[in-house]
């Protein structure tokens, strides 16, 4: 049976590659995100998960760990539009190739779009502008097929 320490190996490797010291709060952030089925969570949901796990780190320490991990590139931020005037920041572990996000405003599902050609074009535009991409994505909002079909059949 694998111990928590064994399961934390890849998470500890992420911290080592980013030259961040390994703290319990940083590992807890990574564990919570890793164990979440959709792998995207707000800071508030992560803090609630921390409280449920009865961790000893203070909420402020935990939030600082989230921001440190994001600044170091271990986490990526995804801004999700909730309505015309509000958005929510979600975080994910930045351990996959660069990708984009689509968001269903009805069922609140996030879809990851992995398209190498699109990413090459975007990288080219960044190069032309002399910019370095950050670990941030703005999710494109819409209504997924399942929610759209449900609406059509409920008429």
TrEMBL record:
One Pfam family it belongs to: FUR
Coiled coil spans: none
Gene3D superfamilies from the UniProt entry: 3.30.1490.190, Winged helix-like DNA-binding domain superfamily/Winged helix DNA-binding domain (1.10.10.10)
InterPro entries: FUR, Fur_C, WH-like_DNA-bd_sf, WH_DNA-bd_sf
Keyword match Repressor: yes
Keywords on record: DNA-binding, Repressor, Transcription, Transcription regulation, Zinc
Protein's UniProt keywords contain NAD: no
PANTHER family in the cross-refs: FERRIC UPTAKE REGULATION PROTEIN (PTHR33202:SF7), ZINC UPTAKE REGULATION PROTEIN (PTHR33202)
Family according to the record: Belongs to the Fur family.
Name of the protein: Ferric uptake regulation protein
Gene, per the UniProt record: fur_2
């Amino acid at each position: 049976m694998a111990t928590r320490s064994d399961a934390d190996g890849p998470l500890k490797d992420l911290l080592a590659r980013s030259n961040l010291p390994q703290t319990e709060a940083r590992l807890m952030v990574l564990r919570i995100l890793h164990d979440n089925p959709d792998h995207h969570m707000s800071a508030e949901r992560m803090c609630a998960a921390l409280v449920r796990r009865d961790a000893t780190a203070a909420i402020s320490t935990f939030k600082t760990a989230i921001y440190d991990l994001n600044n170091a590139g271990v986490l990526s931020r995804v801004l999700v539009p909730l309505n015309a005037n509000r958005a929510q920041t979600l975080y994910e572990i930045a351990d996959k190739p660069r990708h984009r996000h689509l968001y269903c405003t009805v069922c609140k599902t996030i879809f990851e779009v992995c398209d190498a050609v699109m990413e090459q074009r975007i990288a080219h535009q960044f190069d032309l502008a002399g910019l370095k991409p950050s670990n941030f994505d703005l999710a494109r909002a819409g209504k997924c097929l399942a929610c759209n079909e449900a609406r059509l059949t409920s008429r």
